[in-house]
Amino acid sequence: MKNLQNALQLKQLYQLKSLGYHYTNAQLFAQEDEPLELPNTLVDLKKQAQNCHLCFLSKGRNRVVFGEGSQNTKVMFIGDAPIEIEDRAGEPFLGRGGEMLTLMIEKVLGLSREEVYITNLLKCHPSSTQVLHESTMHSCKAYLFKEIELVQPQVIVTLGEMPYHYLTNDTTALKEIRGMVSKRGGYMVVPTYHPNFLLKNPSLKKEVFLDLQKVKGLLLL
Ligand code: SF4
Prior knowledge:
Blueprint: H1 2-18, H2 42-50, H3 57-60, E1 68-69, E2 75-79, H4 84-89, H5 95-109, E3 117-120, H6 134-151, E4 155-159, H7 161-168, H8 174-177, E5 182-184, E6 187-192, H9 195-200, H10 205-219
Parallel strand pairs: 2-3, 2-4, 4-6
Antiparallel strand pairs: 1-3, 5-6
Helix pairs in contact: 5-10
Bound molecules: iron/sulfur cluster (SF4).
Residues 49, 52-55, 57-58, 64, 122-124, 139-140 line the site of iron/sulfur cluster (SF4).
């Protein structure tokens, strides 16, 4: 059945291409109740994401930025989307924000960066002029949910508002819920600020420090 749907969608895409379209809105083909068929290993999932053209972000990306780290970890960090330097390198959380995240993991959790899993909601870098639509997140979040299923973390730390909203469907402002622990399925979620936001608002570092101390406590349970 899925193969038939894929064939029909491919046919529609070729028809659109013949009419002069190079990209189309993923919402046109959105199958709310029909999740993407995704591989059952992180290696194969990464390969599939690297060839993904489900949304318009594939048009401007240099590299797909898939998650990295340990599959046998208890803690996963989820940011929103890769920035330019990460788009060029194909790795998540580089630059000053990435250095800050690494320091927080080491100093507060007492873990190395390789001992946790780090990823983003979106796997491709949106340029400053690209407006993100609901359909963009919808297209990409299947990869994130599969990463969660494969890693099976005990605690997920969401960095910034967007990953928290998409993971929990809770649209409360981050400043009101940061540091609050909620149980979702088989894991706990702790929302906190994104390191890139902390670079612009260093006075909030203390709050993130407290949030991560809470995460450390949860990991000992
Ligand atoms: S952002 Fe996600 S859905 Fe869009 S092209 Fe990249 S991997 Fe595919």
